[in-house]
Amino acid sequence: MLNRLPTRLKGYLITGAGVVMLSPDALIVKDTDVDVPVFVFWRALLMCLVVTLLASWRYKRELPDAIRRCGSAIWICPLAIATSSWVFVAANRLTAAGNVLVIQNMAPLIAGIIGLLFFQQKLRLQTWVVILLCIAGAVMMLSGEMQAGNPMGLLIAAILPFSMAINTTVASAQKGIDTTVLLPFAGIAMIIPAILLGGVALPGWEDMKRILLLGLVFLPAAYYLIQSGPRYITGAEVSLMLILETLLGTLLVWWWVGELPTTMAFIGGGLILLTLSGSALLDLIRINIKARRGVPGARIPPP
C-alpha cells in the first residue's frame, strides 16, 4: 500500500509513525529515578540489540555493502544520533522539560539552513512558513511549562537541535540510501561513554520495567521509522514532523500527572495540528490538480 503513495506523503507517514512511538520517551525519562549514565547505557544497549537484529535480518550477507553505500553518513549520523540521545536525557534531568522541548523545536529551522548551505536542498516557501508556524505553536504550547532552569541544562539543551538537524539533513543528502543500517553504530556511540561514566549498573525493578519497555519497543521502532524518513523527504521536513513529539509527549505528561492544559497550550497545540494538516491538504490538492492535467511525475512533487 505504501508503494502506491506519493513519495513525500510516504515520508511524512513513516516519520509521523516514528514520532508517535517516540512520544513516551520524555515521560519515561522523567518518571525514572536512575543516574543519567545508567539510564543511557540500558536505553542504548537494548535499542542497539533490536536494531542490529533487524538490520541483520533485512540485509543478511549484504549488510556490509548496505553500510558502505551510506558514504560519509557512516560516521556523521551515528555520532549525531548519539549526541542527541545523551543531550536529551541529560538536559531533561537538569532543567524543565518545557525548556528542552522548546529548544529542540528549533531543529527544522536549523536543518533547513544546513540543507540549503551545504547540500543545496531548497525548500518551498510553504515549508518555511509551516516550520515557523509550528515553532510558534510549540512555544505557545509550552509557555506555561518553561522555567528559568539550570544554566548548564539550558546550555546542554542548545546542542540538541543542531545534532538532530545534522542527522536528518546528512541522511537526506544520501539520496534514497537506507541509513537505518547505521543505527547499531549510534547505539555503540551511546554505550561507550555510558560505560566510561560508570553506567554499567542494574536499576531497581520498577525503573527497569520502564526502561525495558522503552528500549525494546518504543525506541527501536521510533529510531527505525524516523531514520527511514530522510529517504523520502528533506531533513528539514523530518525535523518538522518531530515537533509532533512536543504535542504528543506533552499531552502524555499532562495525562500522567493529571494536569489540565492552559488555554495557551490548547491554542499552540491546535496551531501545530492545523498547520501540518493544512500543509498536507495543500500538497494533496496540488498532486490531484497535476494528475488531472497529465503532468509527468505528478505523484511525486518537489520538496
TrEMBL record:
Matches recorded under SUPFAM superfamilies: Multidrug resistance efflux transporter EmrE (SSF103481)
EamA domain sequence ranges: 33-142
GO cellular component terms listed in the entry, alphabetical order: membrane
Keyword field: Membrane, Transmembrane, Transmembrane helix
InterPro entries in the record: EamA_dom, EmrE-like
PANTHER family with a match to the protein in the record: ACYL-MALONYL CONDENSING ENZYME-RELATED
Protein name: Membrane protein
Organism: Nitrincola lacisaponensis
Origin organism lineage: Bacteria, Pseudomonadati, Pseudomonadota, Gammaproteobacteria, Oceanospirillales
